């Protein structure tokens, strides 16, 4: 079945996913292989193996491993071609199942995988930016070693991880993590302004719901 052919079916069945697994791994429902194909289970097992193998390594090593793994093994596919929607943020299980996604999906997969590896969500932010060189909206993952430090940027468009100060091609708009939302360059101060809960972002709420729920949110007729 082609990527475009399974869009609605994949979306519904992937909601069976449960990420409440012990040992920080990703679990999937029984329908997963039926929807995404046999190789999808091999890919999920590879992600879980990566998590287990690197769980006790340094945080910087985890960043390198996760960034390289997704950048080198997954394909960029626009939302309209993959999911039949103009904008859709997928869970890691959906991204791995489909074997690709757009910039948000790469960033979310890296975020969720690093959290499974033991990196605190407080050190991570998903950042919506203007990518100046390609003149379009883009999402990256930022890692803050300490509060207030210059973050490291994990980007699906770059193979290497660089400090944000060396990514002048990116203009931050807003950022968020598990709990919080910030507006970048608030009133041209070049500082982030806390805007409250990240639950204000409906797409992010949807990702967390589909990642956590054991039962499907959509029933196929």
Task: Characterise the protein shown here.
- This protein is α+β, with helices and mostly antiparallel strands.
- The protein has eight helices and nine strands.
- It has a seven-stranded antiparallel β-sheet with strand order 6-5-4-3-7-8-9, covered by helices on one side. Strands 1-2 form a two-stranded parallel ribbon.
- Strand 7 (170-176) and strand 8 form a beta hairpin.
- Helix 3 (38-54) packs across helix 6 (92-98), helix 4 runs antiparallel to helix 7 and helix 6 (92-98) crosses helix 7 (103-116).
- The chain is globular and about 50 Å long.
- The protein starts with 6 loop residues before the first helix and ends in a 9-residue tail after the last helix.
- Residues 1-23 and 214-221 have low confidence and may be disordered.
Task: Show unreliable segments.
Answer: 1-23, 214-221
Q: Tell me about the largest β-sheet.
A: 7 strands, antiparallel
N- and C-termini, Cα separation: 20 Å
Instruction: Tell me the helix content.
Output: 25-40%
Shape: globular
Overall mean confidence score, pLDDT: 86
Strand-pairing-aware structural class:
alpha+beta
Strand order of the largest sheet: 6-5-4-3-7-8-9
What is the helix tally?
Answer: 8
| Beta-strand content estimate | 15-25%
Radius of gyration: 17 Å
Give the H and E element order: HHHHEHHEHEEEEEEEH
